[in-house]
Amino acid sequence: MIVWHYVRVTLHLLAGLMTCAFLFPVCSQISREKLVQRWSRQLLGICTVDVRFIDQSEGQHAERALIVSNHISWLDIFVINTLHPCHFVAKADIRSWPLVGWLCERAGTIFLARGKQREVRRIYEGLVHQIEAGKRIAFFPEGTTAAQGTVLPFHANLFEAAIEAKVPVQPFALRYVDQQGRFHHAADFIGDMSFAESMKIILKAPRMTAELIRLPAITTCGAHRRDIATQSQQAVRDALGIQATQAA
Hints:
Layout: H1 2-23, H2 29-46, E1 49-55, E2 66-69, H3 75-83, E3 87-91, H4 100-106, E4 110-112, H5 117-132, E5 137-139, H6 159-165, E6 169-177, H7 195-204, E7 208-214, H8 225-240
Helix pairs in contact: 1-2, 1-4, 2-3, 5-6
């Protein structure tokens, strides 16, 4: 069974490569988003990951906003894409992943090298232009993945893009659970774990459900980026019912 899952994942990745190479150049933005949404749903289906959308925004969500979420796994991008196909800001390491890195790049992922302030500034300016152009941008402000049961401090730098583009921040809380509603730790992608190792664990694990929780949008008018980052982290932490790791 596990071999068949690997075959299906490989074939699906190859189908994604073909789509990016031959359909994306001739598709409209709306058509590309629909293709990304469908492809993401199919990938999660192959990985036996169901998606449950939970709306806790109380009508205070924003379609034109900077999307942020806690970060657990490489699966997160595709879970969010099933609801809102986005251009993600992701760590530069992903670009080197076989097949997946190229797919993410073609889908509009913006890669950010760690610890390079000049790179952060360049990315930030690009985000402002893309948001103003109507593109849906998302990033994971923890800067890395964290095991479920933990929310790391949110880095504030890229929140400035929402302030300058005059759009709110739309936070989401994300968790992976088993049939009893407990954290499904097969989704955790932490430490030195490779993409291949993570994929193997997920494919061998019992079925899981990704719960994507939309929270009330946070206004950025007259706000400071650090305050918005703190408010976003607090909202995610409260939605998940877990304690955040204190900043050093």
